[in-house]
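Hi support team,

I submitted a single chain yesterday and got back a structure, but I'm not sure I'm reading the C-alpha cell output correctly. Could someone confirm the output below corresponds to the sequence I sent? I've pasted both exactly as they appear in my results page.

Thanks,
R.
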Amino acid sequence: MLETNEVVTCFLESDGKILILKRSNRVGTYQKKWAGISGYIDNPAKCRVTDQAYKEIQEETGLTKYDIELVKKGATLEVIDSEIKRKWIVHPYLFHIKNKKEISINWEHLEIKWIYPEEVSLYPTVPKLKEVLRKVSNKIIP
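Hi R., thanks for writing in. Yes, this is the structure output for that exact sequence:
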C-alpha cells in the first residue's frame, strides 16, 4: 500500500531561467537531489493550495508574496515512488521573481542554480521534476 501525500512544487523564473535547489541531508526524502521549492500540504481539504505555495517560498527562500508574481498554476500530477512506497500528488506553480539577489535559502537546501528549463534533465532530481516543470513551463522540455 502506498502512502499518499499532497505537495506543492514551485518554480521561480527570471530572464528565461528557473531556480532549482539542492536538497540538504536534513530533509526527510531525496537528500542531495535537485528540486523546486516544495512542501507538504498537511490538510488538503482545508488548505488553499496557493497559500501553501507562498508559505513554502517564504520559508525556503525568504521571499514574500510582494517579491514574486504568480505566472501559472499547472494541473496536478501524480508521481509514484515505489522505492519509498509513496504516491505524491504534486500541485505545480510558476512564479516570476522580481529580484534574484533577494534569495536566502534555509536549512532544507545546500545550494541553488539558475538553469534553462530544458537543462533540468542534466541534474539528478527528485522524481519526475521534469514532468512537473512541463505543467507550468512555456518552453519545450525534452
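A quick pointer for reading it: The chain has one domain: 3-134. Let us know if anything else looks off.

Best,
Support desk
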